[in-house]
Amino acid sequence: MRHGDKINNLGRKKAHREALLSNLASQLIVHKRIVTTLAKAKALRTYVEPLITKTKKGDNKETISHQHRVVFSYLQDKAATKELFTVVAPKILSRPGGYTRIIKLGIRPGDNAEKALIELVDFNEVYVKGSAKPAETAKRTRRSGGAKKKATAEAEITTTTEEQETTEETKTEE
Q1: Residue 106: beta bridge partners?
Q2: Which of 83, 118, 145, 174 has its CA 20 to 30 A from that of 8?
Q3: CA dist 171 to 104, 108, 162, 164, 168, Å?
């Protein structure tokens, strides 16, 4: 029985599956988008997103070099690791997660397999709005900031009404 076994084995042994995902991840990082089967794209997403998250954890030099070694142990590709830390990391710095996008492309005529395009979200110029903005490092929370916003909005309304009253008084004095 497969109780609690959620990993897609992709019809391969463990070593073959790890090599496949490592190669797909390296190519995704270098080329920013690749076309593969839907099952491989979904497996690749769970493999590559934690690696991209590791690029954000860089407080000091030792931590950064440690993360380089950890990511390299997964990718086994110096060029892809360097690209990940120098090109990809600065672009995804403000994104809290969800670094990849999977777009279904239909079926492959030869074997009827579902094809999919997997890409890094921040590198698609069609979907990215305001790409000229610098990356923000401020974290956003879901906690209620509504009371503060509401208070500032009310303060703005009262100041505008006071300004209107003073302008009306000066007009009547003239």
Answers
A1: 115
A2: 83
A3: 65, 76, 14, 11, 5
Which pair of structure tokens corresponds to residue 141?
A: 């929370």
Residue 82's CB: how many other CB atoms inside 10 A? Answer: 14
Neighbours of 86 (CB within 10 A): 10
Extract the tokens encoding 91: 């672009």
CA diameter of the chain: 90
Identify the H or E element spanning 111. Answer: none
According to CATH, what is the number of the domain 14-123? Answer: 3.90.1030.10
pLDDT digits (tens, 9 = 90+) for 57-101: 877 899 999 999 999 999 999 999 999 999 999 999 989 999 999
The pLDDT > 90 percentage for the chain reads 62
Where do the domains of the chain lie? Answer: 14-123, 142-174
* Cα end-to-end distance, the chain, whole Å: 90
What's the rounded Cα separation, in Å, for the pair 160 and 18? 63
Cα separation, 31 vs 26, in Å, equals 9
Q: Give backbone dihedrals phi and psi of 76, rounded to 5 degrees, phi first.
A: 55, 40
> How does pLDDT run across 118-153, given as a tens digit for each residue?
999 999 888 766 554 555 556 677 777 666 666 565
